[in-house]
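Re: beginner question about structure tokens

> Can someone show what the tokenized structure looks like for a real chain? I only ever see the sequence side.

Sure, here's an example I had lying around. Input first:
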Amino acid sequence: MSITQEQRKLILQFQKQEITGHTIYRLLARGQNPHNQKILNRIAEDEMSHYLIYKQLSGSSISINRWEVIKYRVLSWIFGPTFSIKLMEKNEKTAQDSYSRLTEFQEILPIIRDEELHENELIGMISENKLNYMGSVVLGLNDALVELTGALAGLTFALQNPSLIALTGSITGIAAAFSMAASEYLSTKSENTGKHAGTASLYTGIAYIFTVILLIIPFLLLKNVYISLLITLASAVLIIAAFNYFYAIVKDEKFIRRFSEMLILSLSVATLSFGVGFILRKSFGIEI
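And the corresponding structure tokens:
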């Protein structure tokens, strides 16, 4: 069958994508447990078979995209293999819309079926222990963002002193982190979900303290409390966006919905707390 110039260009694009995917899956399989290694190596083999089909159609060999390989290795190191793999498959799924222009080639049909299998079955079988504690991380981040942004907003107007705000916010945040970690420990232990209570508690506490540090820093570096508060709120938005993007990818959920809910909740509490700080300051006539 003759191939048009446009079709050949598309085939070469998919060919490069498949050989790059093969290389990435092989690299990600290293250091994984035997169960995950088996799944990732199976996907890598499928990607190679796809590459060979495209190679037969194009009549050309093609090299990997080295930047893509580096990118996904770094992402896997930072966020874990599940995030990297699902993000890669998500990007591949977007490109699959172009398959409609190649359906006249019967060789392409098995590739489409394999890609659907990767997304629906194989990737869902990957076991990553830390993802079992995602709920604990959500608890720590969500509570820290909602409570501390609200507390810092209220303290900003009530105290109007960056050092005092940072000190009070730090004490409040660290105490709340210990409290949340203890609550998560007791909750996990009583639910009997199979998760280790101590590990769940640790994830919650670390997520909380990490958020506290990021939100407090502007008040330690700047003298203008209102600029500090704006930077803190901007940091909160970035944390919410980054975490919810990660969560949406690994859990196959809608990013916009989760991001909007958490953002509205955090900023609403901050606005109300700022108002409370204003009212209390005026009511008690306190000047610092």
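Each token stands for a local structural state, so reading them left to right follows the chain. The chain has ten helices and no strands.
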